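hey so u asked for the seq, here:
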Amino acid sequence: MQMKLDLKQQLGLLKNYFTDQECNGTIKQKFQGYLFMLVFFLLGCSQDPKFDNTVMREFQQCKTNNGCVLNMDKAFEFDWDTVYYFSGKYSLDEINEILGFNLRNYKDVGARLIFVYKGRDVYSYEWFPSHENLNEDVYLLTDLDFFKVDRHNAKFNLEKIDHTIFVEHSPFRNARAELLKIKN
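ran it, structure tokens below
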């Protein structure tokens, strides 16, 4: 048996469906769940601006475009005691072994800075180093695949080339030469 309803009857049924308290509660829960997943997905996929904004602010406070120093101890106000840098050569297992704990948030994007406080990760900044990403606001230059720096020694040179601010960790001569070759 087929029922054919006109538009007014269809709209009436939809109205009843969405105003029914039992169904309405379920719909609201599902909607909230989908909304939460969407927000989580969007935040997870977007570049976290905290690091970039902090570096840009510190650079703007410098008197000149050269000779600026990023003192991470003062620049990043959250609690942390050590910052680690891992190039894209490190797997999650290798990173966890070096850190001594399992990383809570891991995106397989390439290079990363991981800020640690009392044996747990509190903030991470990930990026994919490539010449296509040189239009980004902030870029880390180093020749190393890994480094670990305690909070009080986390000082990095800042230099602006074109529109990009480079956070430089010695040695970075090879990284800079490669970068300038790509840019030209």
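Confidence is low (pLDDT under 50) at residues 31-47. Residues 5 and 80 are 64 Å apart (CA to CA).
lmk if thats what u needed
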